[in-house]
Amino acid sequence: MFGIIPNMELFFKNKLGVTFDGVKTGEYADAGIFHPLSEEERKMIQHSIEMTYEQFKKRVADGRKKIRRISKQLHREEYGSETMRSQMA
Q1: Taking 60 as the threshold, does the pLDDT of residue 85 lie above it?
Q2: What would you report as the CA-atom Rg of the chain, rounded to the nearest whole angstrom?
Q3: Residues 18, 10: Cα–Cα separation, whole Å
Q4: How far is Cα 12 from Cα 21, in angstroms, rounded to an integer?
Q5: C-alpha to C-alpha distance for 24 and 5, rounded to whole angstroms
Q6: Residues 44-54: pLDDT tens digits?
Q7: Which of 6, 58, 65, 66 to pair with 41, CA 20 to 30 A apart?
Q8: Handedness of CA 24, 41, 8, 5 (dihedral sign)
Q9: CA–CA distance, 47 with 54 (Å, rounded to integer)
Q10: Distances from the Cα of 26 to the Cαs of 22, 30, 37, in angstroms?
């Protein structure tokens, strides 16, 4: 898992002649494409990526456990009934 946040500041300024002024509600509200990321912004994004990856791994593991459980149940239902029939004969 990875994240990409392009720094478009120079593209907008040099290629399009567009610069930005802004007002923000929080210290990191403007983190993103209009200026290079600060070290703190990088750390926040890294943490977010790591948390998302941990959640992904947990969901995959949980899903695999569920699939194994269902598979075992189906196997018992299919072969368990045949075993019972052969024992009754």
Answers
A1: no
A2: 27
A3: 9
A4: 13
A5: 19
A6: 999 999 999 99
A7: 58
A8: negative
A9: 11
A10: 12, 8, 15
Please name the amino acid found at residue 1: M
3-class secondary structure, 29: coil
State pLDDT tens for residues 35-77: 888 999 999 999 999 999 999 999 999 988 888 888 888 878 8
Query: Of the candidates 45, 41, 36, which has an alpha carbon nearest to the alpha carbon of residue 11?
Result: 36
C-alpha separations of 25 from 3, 28, 47, 57 in Å:
24, 9, 22, 34
Place of tokens 């593209």: 11
Q: Please give the CATH topology (third level) of the domain spanning 9-88.
A: peptide peptidase (sppa) fold (3.40.1750)
pTM of the model: 0.61
